[in-house]
């Protein structure tokens, strides 16, 4: 049991192979070799089917891309299939996108109203027309108001989707190349903390049965973008922030287009088909124009991020279960 838990064969891997493995299981890719080894081992301990984690027959996953004016979330379900004669380890089946929304937390009296106004309009055109015709009260960034927003949002999400897992995009304080941290990123960070506080309170009171996990964008990006850089970019060139956004939008657009194929890696639920079709329509227009506008990229970016974040979690869990079952034979890590 001890050797199986520590997986001594990991010690023989080079830093390059440990990096590839860390990308596959969603563990830290930086630091010393011992740090990376510990990260991989900890990730494997948290895999579904471990003795520490209760096992659900289906995951109901709520993936949140943080924001205030543009908060996006995806509700994804995936069945946990047990091992069979050909596979001795469990795996999550094809994820189903059940719901996909982008909302403005700060400008509408009802979270439900926000979801309706943006649901089938990822570009924001309809929402802009509403704002032009309606006098919107000045946004308040007072903590007392955002505490109310956080509580209302969490209660609605828990009631409507009944998640077993909640993923929250981890915020970092960006300066945008300026000497000081941008105030807007601090506000989003404060709101992030309030959402955690509401969820923690509910967990401590025993009112919910779920797990809450932070998701670091660099780890998600590495899973989706390593080896998937656009053909017109050199492999050794690091993608800029704008290029990263475009690449992720392209990945989501392609996933949605292939969702009807027999071998699809993503299925669409009835409630997500309309917004998915709108996403693909806007994506194709932006792509065919040859020069994508910042507004177009921005409106699709939030939706793309929350979906890829949720799908990354599912893939990490599958890779962890595979690695636990097959050990060093689980993946071909190539040669250094």
Automatic annotation (TrEMBL):
GO CC list: mitochondrion
SUPFAM superfamilies recorded: Ribonuclease H-like
Domain of life: Eukaryota
InterPro entries to which the protein is assigned, alphabetical: Mrs1/Cce1, RNaseH-like_sf, RNaseH_sf, Ydc2_cat
Domain Mitochondrial resolvase Ydc2 catalytic positions: 62-323
GO molecular function: crossed form four-way junction DNA binding; DNA endonuclease activity; flap-structured DNA binding; Y-form DNA binding
Protein's name according to its UniProt entry: Mitochondrial resolvase Ydc2 catalytic domain-containing protein
Native species: Exophiala mesophila
